[in-house]
Amino acid sequence: MGETVIFRCRRNSVRAERMDWGMKNRLSRIIKPETGRTVMLAVDHGYFMGPTHKLEEPRKTTEPLLAHSDAIMCTRGVLRTSINPGSTVPIVLRVSGGASIIGESLTNEAITTSVRDAVRLNVAAMALSIFVGSAHEHQTLTNLGKLVNEGEEHGIPVLAVTAVGKELEKRDARYLALACRIAAEIGAHFVKTYYCEDFGKVVKGCPVPLVVAGGPKLETELDAFQLAYDAIQDGAVGVDMGRNIWQSEHPVPMIKAIREIVHGGVTVREAQEVYDRSKNTKEQVILRPSLAR
Fold this sequence. Notes:
Order of helices and strands: EEHEHHEHEEEHEHEHEHEHEHHH
CATH superfamily: Aldolase class I
Radius of gyration: 18 Å
Oligomer: single chain
Largest sheet: 8 strands, parallel, barrel
Number of strands: 12
Strand order of the largest sheet: 3-4-5-8-9-10-11-12
């Protein structure tokens, strides 16, 4: 029989899902049981964007940030070439692709990495994009179903990413609630989505944990702190940030401050204080105690 694993998904509430030990163990490496939250570092942008600014050399970008990340989201190419195999950070492996930023559409994705390779790489989870409402809706949703089927066989959880391609205007509560619920219904174990107005409605309609994407680089660090704070307050279990961390002038202080919001429960202003103080010291700046540091 499966065991019950509990994640805090909203303030003063929990959600439970029955799953096998291996699935539970892998998810608990990503979403920390001490807080029910996670800070993922997204570095999978190259699979459709190529050598993104400040991610031209993945190893150089990721190495200083590994110790401060609860999980790294990347492709097998970056994992094999740029992530130290001696690192203990869990890997959320991007397994979908097939389109590029210069192509006609970003929605025409297929499964590009086998589950067998994911097992060989000892990953904690697999990630795949779905494009609800696009010309390739059916294709990407059935991709998700196939991946969940194989993931269940091997005890590997699946992260569904509610991608919107080039149509950023789709990032509203009605659309995201639909996409997240469909992903959960098909069997995704957790979902990465965008933050939006009335995000609580998205959380309420999705019976699995939600992780909020950082999206494009925001204008200021304070904007990124506000995004992370609002997402957690409205029920996300964490964030999966990339450009707002490694495109910052001070990436390590940036991820430290985000961790304090997610795991430490600090305010936006307190996160700014952590960021400013961390720029001048290598010591950890802690404003509130947390078991997940």
